[in-house]
Amino acid sequence: MSLERAVMAFAGVMVLISVALTQLVSPWWWLLTAFVGFNLLQSAFTGFCPAAMILRRLGVGRGESAGCHFK
To answer: Where's the Inner membrane protein YgaP-like transmembrane domain (predicted)?
Structure first.
């Protein structure tokens, strides 16, 4: 899996988890959804993505021939 796809998958999972926690625990979990959305938006403009840095350190995307936009 490429790093870019892993970041998108991670963001999607975090949004789904926060929606579930909002319904089951507390409406304050919407803040997690807002945080994920903000990070996606700022990374689109700046190219800085903390999730990509963490996933790269964990070995995601190594050996991929396709270039990744996250640096």
So the answer is: 2-56
Cβ atoms 1, 60 nearer than 8 A: yes
Domain boundaries, given as residue ranges, for the chain: 3-57
For 49: left if phi > 0, alpha if psi spans -120 to 50, otherwise beta; the answer is beta
User: What is d(CA 13, CA 18) in angstroms, rounded to the nearest whole number?
Assistant: 9
What per-residue confidence (pLDDT) applies to 62? 77
Positions in the chain whose pLDDT score sits under 50: 65-67
Whether 43 contacts 31, CB under 8 Å: no
Q: How far apart are CA 4 and CA 70, in angstroms?
A: 7
> How many whole angstroms separate alpha carbon 23 and alpha carbon 12?
17
